[in-house]
Design goal:
Number of helices: 4
Distance between the termini: 41 Å
Mean pLDDT: 83
Order of helices and strands: HHHH
Structural class: mainly alpha
Radius of gyration: 12 Å
Number of domains: 1
Number of strands: 0
Shape: globular
Length: about 70
C-alpha cells in the first residue's frame, strides 16, 4: 500500500511539474534546492532534486530551471 501511494504521489508531482504548476507546500528539502539555485550551484541543485524525487536528468534540469532565482 505504501509503495502504491509513493507511486501515485510521484505521478502527481510529474503532472504538476509538466504543467508548470508550483505546489504551495515547500518541504525543507526543496528549500535546500532553492538555496543552491540562489547560490548559483545549479548542477548541485539538479543532483539533489534527482536524489529527492527520483527524476531523470532532463526532468530535474527543467524543474530547477523553472525555480525562482535561476537566471
Amino acid at each position: 500500500m505504501e509503495r502504491r501511494l509513493e507511486r501515485i504521489e510521484r505521478r502527481q508531482e510529474l503532472i504538476l511539474s509538466h504543467l508548470g504548476i508550483a505546489f504551495e507546500e515547500v518541504s525543507p528539502d526543496l528549500r535546500e534546492i532553492d538555496e543552491l539555485v540562489r547560490q548559483g550551484k545549479k548542477i548541485q541543485a539538479i543532483k539533489v532534486y534527482r536524489e529527492l524525487t527520483g527524476a531523470g536528468l532532463k526532468e530535474a534540469k527543467d524543474a530547477v530551471d523553472r525555480m525562482p532565482g535561476n537566471g
